[in-house]
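Researcher: Good morning. I'm working through a list of sequences from a screen, and I'd like to move beyond sequence-only analysis. For each chain I'm collecting a predicted structure so we can compare shapes side by side. This is the next one on the list. No need for commentary yet; just the structure.
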Amino acid sequence: MPDELVSPGTEPLPEVPLEPTPAFFVAATSTPAPAADLAVKPVRKPRRGMYVLPSLFTAGNIAAGYYAITQSVQGSVADPNYFDRAALAIGFAVLFDGLDGRIARMTNTTSDFGKELDSLADVITFGVAPSLLAYIWGFRMLPLLAYPMLRERILHIGVFVCFLFLICGASRLARFNVTINPQPRNPGRPGRKYFVGMPIPAGAGVLAAVVHFFRGSPIVDARMSILWLALIAGTGFLMVSSWRFWSGKEINLGDRHPVRQLLILAILAAVLVMESEWALIIIALGYLVSGVLARLAYSWSRERRRSAQGGSA
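Model: Good morning. Structure tokens for this chain:
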């Protein structure tokens, strides 16, 4: 303490040491640390056994395709049930194919191995199996005695068109695997995701739905075989096209209130069980036609805009 402030005859007061500032006050008044400095909890990885779950559905996909192949080669005019069972097996494979990807995303078990296995499974089940079924059911069962030359020519063309279907499906898968964020030539609503080209499961579903609609009874009329050729070729073209198709990815069963979606799925499942022939062919051909109509509508609206701009200029 300075001497001039001390009265004569008195002793100076002892200096009181300052107490340290409480820690909670420092923490409350200090500038918060940036988020980067905070400790981040590591994301818990799923167990190894969980990675097997999506692959089990993929294995079911392959098993259904293999079963469809074995049934197709046994079918005949006398026993068409083999063809019908092959078509139904492809339909069940479409269900398995839709579930394995969703389960992998829901359980956070996506992997490069699973993606490659899924692609190989799709080539077998939705490429080889439906092309073989389409050839045997639609061309091989034509009568031998009626128009033998025409039958031989239809058989040769049928082999080629069914092989084109297989190549188109494999090319569609390869393009899907290597393309990042593909955009269709006829864009849809902003914010929605679309498939670029018809997916190969849908293409296989179209052929299987037609076979199941006739309960496996093979084609025995050359005129019907020509229509069958056109349907196979058109489906193959749509798979390698750049037209948009509905993806259904906006359907999310993980919402808090999925009652409406579950109700629709339950009604759809009931209709499929009771009237599978009509329900499957309406769904399959409706999906095919929707992509064609979307492309035609886009072309028509674009021509209208061009004509309007030309008239205003």
